[in-house]
């Protein structure tokens, strides 16, 4: 486990910590961009009210709900869909890099990944932009992460050059690696290019 990372159990042992849970929902796909470039996987993120990209989810109140129940509630608010989340989807947790150091208000960020069917992902996109309570409020829209690289170098690199909330960008990159959604070499190139774009 990387330094600064906490297991689910270690995180839950922190007395007085606040907790937030976010999830990367994704599916495999055979569809192709412009009929020729394999899209391979569709990971979902969202454009937040503050203009930053992030994952769906939010603050969990452990006196009323478990981490996974809280995440499920946040997903129903933000996506308008009931999605069961279980402990097996928990990937890691860490202290928020931006929250205060006083232990009473330290924020622990939990991250989950759940693989779904392509039809379910499409349903999430539909409901999120129609019946979700938070549509147009906390959530301005769902976005698919482009995992391919086009001839001019755009695609994943350009996406990674945008602004992300908290450590959502690292969560994305780590998941692409861990779940083998982008070949390591391609990911490495996209990261270098994203740095060039931002410099
Ligand atoms: P409210 O209902 O308005 O309180 O929002 P929320 O419960 O949906 O909370 P939000 O999703 O904004 O997440 C809570 C905090 O976690 C944020 O203030 C950010 O600091 C952080 N955060 C938000 N999204 C992400 C994310 O995708 N990844 C990480 N690591 N942190 C995030
Ligand atoms: Mn929310
Ligand atoms: Mn949220
Ligand atoms: Mn909330
Ligand atoms: Mn809310
Ligand atoms: Mn793959």
Topology:
Elements (H helix, E strand, L loop, with lengths): L4 E2 L1 H5 L5 E11 L3 E2 L3 E2 L2 E8 L4 E2 L1 E5 L6 H13 L10 E6 L11 E9 L2 H11 L10 E6 L11 H5 L7 H11 L5 H15 L1
Parallel strand pairs: 2-9
Antiparallel strand pairs: 1-8, 2-5, 2-7, 3-4, 5-6, 5-10, 8-9
Bound molecules: guanosine-5'-triphosphate and manganese (II) ion (5 copies).
Q: In words, what does this structure look like?
A:
With 199 residues, this protein is α+β, with helices and mostly antiparallel strands. It has one domain (5-198): Nucleoside Triphosphate Pyrophosphohydrolase. 30% of the residues lie in helices and 27% in strands. It has six helices and ten strands; from the N terminus they run βαββββββαββαβααα. It has helices spanning 8-12, 67-79, 118-128, 156-160, 168-178, 184-198; strands at 5-6, 18-28, 32-33, 37-38, 41-48, 53-54, 56-60, 90-95, 107-115, 139-144. A hairpin with a 3-residue loop joins strand 3 (32-33) and strand 4 (37-38). The radius of gyration is 17 Å and the shape is globular. The structure holds guanosine-5'-triphosphate and manganese (II) ion (MN) (5 copies). Residues 57-58, 74, 78, 138 line the site of one manganese (II) ion.
């Amino acid at each position: 486990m990387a330094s600064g990372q906490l297991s689910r159990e270690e995180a839950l042992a922190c007395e007085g910590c606040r907790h937030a849970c976010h999830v990367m929902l994704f599916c495999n796909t055979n569809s192709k961009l412009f009929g020729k470039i394999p899209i391979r996987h569709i990971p979902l993120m969202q454009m937040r009210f503050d203009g930053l990209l992030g994952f769906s989810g939010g603050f969990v109140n452990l006196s009323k709900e478990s981490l996974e129940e809280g995440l499920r509630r946040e997903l129903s608010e933000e996506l308008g869909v009931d999605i069961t989340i279980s402990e097996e989807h928990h990937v890691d947790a860490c202290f928020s890099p931006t929250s205060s150091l006083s232990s009473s208000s330290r924020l622990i960020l939990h991250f989950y990944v759940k693989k779904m069917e392509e039809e379910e992902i499409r349903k999430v996109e539909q409901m999120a932009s129609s019946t979700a309570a938070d549509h147009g409020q906390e959530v301005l829209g769902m976005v698919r992460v482009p995992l391919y690289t086009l001839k001019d170098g755009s695609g994943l690199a350009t996406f990674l050059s945008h602004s992300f909330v908290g450590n959502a960008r690292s969560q994305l990159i780590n998941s692409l690696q861990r779940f083998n959604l982008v070949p390591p070499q391609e990911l490495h190139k996209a990261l270098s290019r994203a740095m060039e774009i931002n410099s």
